[in-house]
């Protein structure tokens, strides 16, 4: 370890050395976490690689399974085909043992990845519209919850209780299938946005309420003493502080809403990722490939959103100090 | 001379608790008045009634010619309260700076938002006041980065920038580390010297003795003594005042 501080030209103090050791420990830990992640990811890829290790009939071999279109009796069929990569003329007798991984239909993925990926736009559209609705509703519900007016308080708690007490899946179908009986016909997209917005609005109202009550009474008093009206106090003093408190959990809600938007596919009329994946998967009985594809798209989207969220969080934390 | 603050027959109840009992006081322009008393005597409540952070139950408050009766509701009452608040500046024990704004933003918030002052004009005026409390060098910092004493000096500048006729101080040094009290008291002396009418709830007997024109002693929601500091500290008339002053002496 370097005991000399170049900047000050003196030996490092004990505190500096301790800090250095801690930083080094942290760095090593973080590096090992990243390496482990990479290892797990590689293992997952290997699991879907179609590679088979076999030792039978006194032959040990490594082979790769894949799908190929072959013509059998003038009919084109997709068949699993084995290609031996390497083999040794020694091994266990008879059936022996084999270690098989899952072979996916690359051909199918190549042909359909574009189609499924086009659903990303719809997924983002539903999530963005729903989150906007949810924020407005959550704010109103939170303010209602903090209100001293019993009717307003009741409306707010009633809404939250009703929405949280029923399944999201039911709510989507209610807006899509039940409302037409009342001659209110919503498109799949708007039924989904309404249901998701109402649902997340109810959940997020708790976050907002916590944010609003985190702003101390002294802040309101200081604003009043300056002559601010209740509206100005709310807009200029209370809300900015409450939002800063509420943004990190809101990010989590937005991420989970992005995933819950998959439920809207059940209406059958919103062509987002999940709808497209199940459509092509069922058509060619390649559900595994289709769902793995959709999973990858969702995962990448949430990874991006998470990284944006953590960046926003660091920036907010800076303003705090 | 016409009184600038006139408190008439003020009563305040918290439910059944009678915390202020028929209080009447006049304060003249440019006067510095210290309110002392044991905790729970009602001195903070009296101060907070003047700008209606606490709504008085009965009686009235008059600040610079605007008279507001307590215990009323409605639009007219709200407007009067607003007018009174524009005439009074308040400094809190816990500073209550807005943590999401820089020092300068804290100080210009009132003039710009409440008075509709031009931003540039407000900044020039705010910088002048920050300079006079010795905090101009921190104008772009967030309150989080300031010491307690610095925060309180900014809070004083914030209140002064509203150009109030009366400044109310609610135990301005009680939340401070002992070594930071001096800088805040010095700023308050400066404000007093500049001719501001001040009403100060405090435990700082040294400050009361040195700066105050009058010292009012409260006990159980009543005024028990109201006299010049030199008389009060050397020859207290009420035995409760004597006990209070003795307690501070031995406590220090």
What is the average of the pLDDT values of chain B?
92
Helix-strand makeup class of chain A: alpha+beta
Helical element count of chain A? 10
DSSP strand tally of chain B: 10
Percent of residues in β-strands of chain A: 5-15%
Per DSSP E runs of 2 or more residues, the count of β-strands of chain A stands at 6
Strand order of the largest sheet of chain B: 6-7-8-3-9-10
Describe the structure.
- The complex is a heterodimer of chains A (321) and B (252).
- With 321 residues, chain A is α+β, with helices and mostly antiparallel strands.
- Chain A has helices spanning 14-47, 106-117, 119-145, 150-164, 168-178, 188-213, 217-225, 230-260, 273-283, 287-320; strands at residues 4-5, 10-11, 51-56, 59-72, 75-88, 97-100.
- In chain A, the strands form two sheets. A four-stranded antiparallel β-sheet of chain A has the order 5-4-3-6, with no helix packed on it.
- The longest helix of chain A is centred in the first third of the chain and has 34 residues, at 14-47.
- Chain A starts with a strand and ends with a helix.
- By secondary structure, chain B is an alpha/beta fold.
- A six-stranded mixed β-sheet of chain B has the order 6-7-8-3-9-10, with helices on both faces. Chain B has a four-stranded antiparallel β-sheet with strand order 2-1-4-5, covered by helices on one side.
- Chain B is globular, with a radius of gyration of 18 Å.
- Chain A binds chain B through residues 216, 218-219, 221-222, 224-229, 232, 236-237, 240-241, 244, 319-321, and chain B through 51, 53, 82, 85-86, 88-90, 92, 94, 96-100, 109-110, 113-115, 142, 144-145, 158-159, 162.
